[in-house]
Design brief:
Largest sheet: 3 strands, antiparallel
Strand content: 5-15%
Shape: globular
CATH architecture of the largest domain: Orthogonal Bundle
Order of helices and strands: HEEHEHHHHHEEHHHHHHHHEEEEHEEHH
Helix content: 40-55%
CATH class of the largest domain: Mainly Alpha
Distance between the termini: 31 Å
Length: 474
């Protein structure tokens, strides 16, 4: 596909929105949401001069793609300058398959890193100031565990927000390292206490809990990972980073269960507000799908109506001469909603509807400002010279999004949609109406009868701090 379009002066991507509002290119085989190879082959059709700021951001980008994105920005620039000084960047651009190829192949995103090295080499070798180089390279600004950023903002969780860079700091905060430290401390405590029921497990794991062990579980916790899923993720990582192959498989399972429990508990400690909001969203979905016997529906901040498409399936088995076939059909209206799936999927789907709203708000504002923009969900791309302007815009749009009373609006829409429609309501103490004597059959949710359906309390996070946070997106 790349060979087919490489001589075109420019190509365009048509987009679809999924049911939550997330944008995806229609072309399945060649687009900037593809793998590292595909992304490394694409650049903006229109070029713009780097400028001083753009040259700095190109150097930051090179370091990010190599895997140095946990360093402060100036240290990333210094890392790239050192790679230029020792010739590594130039060797990569000049002889990518030469004797030094292992250096760039070990990068976190090797093909994109190679493309960035070629771009930086062209800028530094041009006749005249490198700041005048016309760059077509897209520079990425990525959210810091973006799902948790939205949860922290929803709950105004100041401590959780600090862990995901909603507030200013001298260095980028690493939520995965923070959770790892909590888990490691708990393991060390159990390992030092022979009376602990987890003493033997902790002894085997003491000093072996790496960032990699907990990262996937922390990342997917926002999207509804179950305990079973977390256990499997952690078991896979433990087998990669430790010498568990010496132990029986059953022991692997016990160790992973132990670490999974500690990881999920530590997440609740770090993100109290996020956990509270997630629990409240799940409680609402459970009440709607069970009491209301209906799928969960809501409207995004941009006005897109969303309906979760999870229904139970009717099935029947047909026996043929060769085999037995199970036919499943989820379109049968008599099947009803899948309450379990409606409940587990709603918190992540709601957050996806928020991150898609933030992206589209940013895209619209960038277009009005004359800034070229592309995005992979929570990774925003623009020319090097426009990164600072895009950064200011995306922070302002995030603040504008979360300054709205999102949870209050959501609850109000639920009350309107899923409450009793009969005059007088479902309360037997009220006079008149079809439901005055009780026994209502309208499958309404009794919002005031459930403590868990009341709006969660919010913390004291000041959203305006996001505008001053260097590492909110970086």
């Amino acid at each position: 596909m790349a060979k087919r379009v490489r001589d075109e002066p420019r190509i365009y991507f048509a987009y679809n929105l999924d049911f939550r509002g997330r944008a995806y290119p229609v072309s399945p085989h060649f687009n900037h949401m593809g793998d590292d190879v595909t992304r490394g082959m694409l650049e903006f059709a229109e070029g713009r001069p780097l400028g001083t700021a753009g040259l700095r951001w190109l150097k930051v980008h090179v370091a990010n793609l190599h895997g140095q994105d946990k360093l402060p920005l100036e240290e990333r620039v210094a890392w790239t300058d050192a790679a230029v000084a020792d010739g590594s960047i130039f060797r990569t651009a000049d002889e990518p398959l030469g004797p030094h190829k292992d250096w760039w192949l070990q990068a976190e995103a090797p093909v994109q890193f190679f493309a960035a090295c070629v771009e930086l080499t062209a800028a530094l070798r041009r006749k005249g100031p490198p700041e005048l180089h016309i760059s077509h390279a897209p520079i990425h600004q990525d959210g810091s565990c973006n799902g948790l950023q939205h949860y922290a903002a929803l709950g105004r969780d100041s401590y959780g927000g600090q862990q995901v860079n909603l507030t200013p700091s001298d260095r980028p905060q690493d939520v995965y390292a923070g959770v790892r430290a909590l888990v490691e401390a708990k393991v060390a405590k159990d390992a030092a206490d022979p009376e602990s029921p987890h003493f033997e497990l902790a002894r085997q794991l003491d000093g072996r809990i790496s960032r990699k062990v907990v990262k996937q579980t922390v990342m997917t916790s926002v999207y509804g990972v179950t305990f079973v899923g977390a256990r499997q993720q952690i078991q896979n990582r433990l087998e990669e980073v430790t010498d568990l192959e010496e132990l029986p498989r059953a022991e692997h399972h016990r160790l992973a269960s132990y670490v999974a429990k500690l990881t999920l508990a530590s997440l609740g400690e770090v993100f109290t507000g996020a956990t509270t909001s997630m629990t409240w969203l799940a409680s609402c979905a459970r009440a709607i799908s069970r009491e209301g016997d209906a799928p969960v529906e809501w409207v995004t901040p941009l006005g897109l109506p969303v309906l979760q498409p999870y229904s139970k399936r009717s099935s029947r088995r047909i026996k043929t001469v060769l085999q037995s076939i199970l036919l499943c059909d989820s379109s049968d209206a008599e099947c009803g909603v899948d309450s379990r799936k409606q409940t587990s999927a709603f918190p992540p789907n709601y957050v996806h509807s928020l991150d898609s709203s933030h992206m589209l708000m940013t895209a619209s504002a960038c277009r009005k400002a004359g800034i070229t923009f592309a995005a992979v969900h929570d990774s925003y791309w623009t020319h090097p010279c426009d990164v600072d302007r895009m950064n200011a815009i995306l922070r302002r749009q995030f603040i504008l999004l979360h300054q709205q009373p999102l949870l209050e609006q959501l609850l109000a829409s639920f009350r309107k949609r899923y409450s009793c429609k009969h005059e007088g309501g479902c309360d037997p103490s009220q006079a008149g109406g079809a439901c005055a004597e009780g026994g209502c059959d309208c499958h309404a949710v009794r919002w005031d009868e459930h403590e868990e359906l009341r709006l969660p309390e919010q913390g004291d996070l000041n959203l305006e701090e996001v505008s001053k946070s260097t590492y909110f997106f970086a």
